[in-house]
Amino acid sequence: MLNKYLSIINKEYKSVSEYKIVNKGINSLIVKLTHCDNQKSTLKIYPNFIEDKRNRLQNEVTFLKFLEANNLKNIPKVYYSNPKNNFTILSWIDGSKLKSSENINLDEIANFFYLLNNPKLKKLDHIEYASEANFNIEQTIKLINQIAQNKLNELKKYSEKNDFYNWFNNFLI
Fold first, then answer.
1. Quick check: 56 pLDDT over 70?
2. pLDDT (tens digit, 9 = 90+) per residue, 126-156?
3. CA angle, 89 then 93 then 14, to 5°
4. Pick from 88, 35, 98: which is nearest to 65 by CA?
5. Residues 105, 69, 42, 30, Cα dihedral to 10°
6. Alpha-carbon torsion 105, 109, 114, 118, what sign?
7. Which residue from 25, 28, 38, 94 has the highest number of Cβ atoms inside 10 Å of its Cβ?
8. Are 46 and 56 in contact (CB under 8 A)?
9. Coil, strand or helix at 148
């Protein structure tokens, strides 16, 4: 399957010399690409969900352009987008995967969301609402509590005696 995408990228964007799958999840497949000119980029392949009619690729591209237009830092740039085959190529941002809850800074996350809702930001194309979007604070709190409880139940399946479970249950919830 990946060969199909690499073939298209080689023809329509630039030649790939090596690749490495970084993350395979329900919402996308993320592949780190190294091109023949040593440029690194990210291939993001979006699944086609029959029951979900949202255009995930277009929504993400529009949102990233919105962030870039407003000079937000540490966001990937869109290099190439292929709506027909439902993938995009983004700039590669070096970093490391969070492996511990100790590295999560809730103040930084809250500040990012605060920045996103600043009415002074430049407006671009219409940005679709997230699938869980609502505009009632009580519904928002209810949704967050439900998602947190679902995650806590999932964590219980593995073990209630680990640091992440304890942090999630005692601190975050």
1. yes
2. 777 766 677 788 888 888 888 888 888 888 8
3. 35
4. 88
5. 60
6. positive
7. 28
8. yes
9. helix
Distances (CA, A) of 105 to 70, 112, 116, 150, 171: 23, 11, 17, 22, 13
SS3 126: coil
Q: What count of Cα atoms within 13 Å lies in the side-chain half-sphere of residue 126?
A: 3
Amino acid found at 113: F
- Token pair, residue 66, equals 């919105």
pTM, two decimals, is: 0.72
Alpha-carbon distance 53 to 98, whole Å?
31
What tokens appear for 21 in the block? 């799958």
On whether the CB atoms of residues 53 and 36 are closer than 8 A, the answer is no
Instruction: Please give the Cα distance from 165 to 20 (Å, whole number).
Output: 30
Phi, psi of 44 (to 5 degrees): -120, 120
Nearest to 173 by CA among 143, 158, 152, 142: 152
Distant-in-sequence, close-in-space partners of 55: CB < 8 Å, separation ≥ 6? 83, 128
Q: Parallel, antiparallel, or unpaired for β 29-35 and 16-24?
A: antiparallel
Alpha-carbon distance values, 57 to 28, 106, 133 (Å): 10, 27, 18
